[in-house]
């Protein structure tokens, strides 16, 4: 019972580790990564995946009991498909990489330095830790997390409509419990009698699990940073390219009556429309909001900040817990990620010229027109101002 309780405590701590809150996993969970970004993620995983059998072999080298070593060898045999080339896990994984256009033949040549560091750090740790820690590192910190981790990946695969047969490697590992984690955890428990207390054994095992998940967190954070930087790479180039900027054929602010209708809602107490001007701005995104008498827009929040200039009418802008009365000539500011809405309290249309930085923030996950609109179906409605 003591052993069962202590193992369960390690399981619980693993499931509650901050690793599960890293940004890249949140993007996978929400289905926000594009196929190109998924491709980049797994291209950086090659250094680690190609070394996984080495990791298991290093665990084997740390074990004193030949029966324990035989159990790990059996795991390696299962990983190899038990002689069945078609079911070889490495083969299936390589097929996945090829299907998402990753050149497997390049191996680690396309890996960033942090990807190689992650793989090398895992190898170095398993070369020097105790037997119980080696089993905990792989058992709790690597194998046990696979079903939850791969289920998170699959959510994004489905979001980009990836065919199921392409990601069968991941589905197989979610659906089939091959017992690899249990084997390693059981072996770690067998080393309990070499410790002077259960608490010392648990502390050692947790140190190994925490190290495994922290290394992976740092690795995933680096990939996330690359993905975000890639989103703004072209924008950065444009900002720095003065000659290129001058040579572009820029469009100036259109007449409001010709501006594209971005969104319109007249359901319930919501009655308003938003137009987007057809300009050449790469960061700023000027918009025109029209709210009829008695109407209001949706209470919403988003990553872009906004400056409102009231052209005509009267109303109030609710920003967080503040209520700002506005009329013709008023200016109001809405920070990023603060819930807000605008109400018309006057006797005519409330018309607002809004400048946002959506041209920049749309490059990041969680900030699309669909993500913060109450009725995304009303985006880009074919309507006229006379309606």
TrEMBL record:
InterPro entries: Cupin_2, Haem_Oase-like_multi-hlx, PqqC-like, RmlC-like_jellyroll, RmlC_Cupin_sf. Residues 367-387 are annotated as: Disordered. SUPFAM superfamilies: Heme oxygenase-like, RmlC-like cupins. Gene3D superfamilies: Heme oxygenase-like, Jelly Rolls. Coiled coil: none annotated. Residues 289-355 form the Cupin type-2 domain. It comes from the Bacteria. Keywords: Oxidoreductase. This is Cupin type-2 domain-containing protein. It comes from Sessilibacter corallicola. The lineage of its organism: Bacteria, Pseudomonadati, Pseudomonadota, Gammaproteobacteria, Cellvibrionales.
